[in-house]
Amino acid sequence: MDARTEPPISGNVQGWTKGDIAFLVFIVLVLVAVTGLGVIAYREALKTEGTKRNGEQWATWLAQEGPKRFAPDYALSACAGVVKTAGPVAAAAGVEAVGSAATTAAAPAPNTWGPCLDYLTTQTAFKDMINPFTGKPPVFVPACDPADHSLVGSIVFDKVTQNPPGSAVPTVTSQLIATDSIGEKVQMKIAVCDKGSYAIKIAELEF
Predict the structure, then answer these.
(1) How far is Cα 91 from Cα 104, in angstroms, rounded to an integer?
(2) Per-residue pLDDT reduced to its tens digit, 172-184
(3) How far is CA 40 from the centre of its chain?
(4) Torsion (CA) 87, 93, 95, 96 in degrees, nearest 10
(5) How far is CA 207 from the centre of its chain?
(6) DSSP code per residue over 63-100
(7) pLDDT at 38 exceeding the cut of 90
């Protein structure tokens, strides 16, 4: 019988080289790292979306209640506007006869933002609102600041004040503070702080 010879086989037939194993380990580590970063990014994106929804809930409620709160029988007295009467009714309500003299009755003190906000965050559905980043109730801050990462998920309420006609700048924006009157209509801006403590604008509305 004729002996047949097999062609030579090049390469390593005994198993993986150390270089092959190291490369595969490196690839596995890269895939694990990429997957982990993707999961973290996804979770952070969900938290940011949850923070935006918090701001949107405030914007929706304030915009809806703004026209209602000037009604005489408005239920949330802490957030009610000052109801103005006109004509003879106002005169009768504003003047009291004392003997032969007449004295002007004191006008009702306007509500302020602090008591209204306190009531909303303790006595309404807003009391259950959670900051997705901290798991605690959202904090209301003067402004978002990327240098301060403790502000993530916070909410910013600003008021917009009209300047006199002819001013170079038509409006001025400033923090809506606890002592600010809400007896009159208030032009407001709402923003939230994202995962980097950068401001995300939610809405501008009249309350």
Answers:
(1) 9
(2) 999 999 999 999 9
(3) 22
(4) 150
(5) 16
(6) HHHTTGGGSTT-S-GGGPPPPP--THHHHHHHEEEETT
(7) no
